What we know:
Layout: E1 11-12, H1 14-22, E2 26-29, H2 33-38, E3 45-46, H3 52-59, E4 66-69, H4 74-85, E5 90-93, H5 96-102
Parallel strand pairs: 1-5, 2-3, 2-4, 4-5
Helix pairs in contact: 1-5
Amino acid sequence: MSLFSRFRQPSVTADVAMVLVTQGATLLDVRENNEWNAGHAPSAVHIPLDQVAAQAGRRLPKGKQVIVVCRSGARAGRAATTLRAAGMDAVNLRGGMRAWEGAGGRVVGKGNRPGVIT
Length: 118
């Protein structure tokens, strides 16, 4: 074990995340409202990062793996750490929504229109 391995975030690639979501994992988007409205994965649950600790327990399904996503991965890593500290099985989607879209993941905007990642 390297000196810094204990600080590594558990994470998955977008391809793996897509499979896990089809198998029942929850995709949690922690971006701000304007980012969510511009474009998000259709099946995602939206809880902005600053509300994760307060809302996750009542908004996320119990006993399901949570894949946390933001635009690039930094905020999602913080949220995943918070969720794991609360006893949840949470991982960071490596590369965020940009990776999701790049791997062919669908992105919708407000009103189910085609979305963009901002």
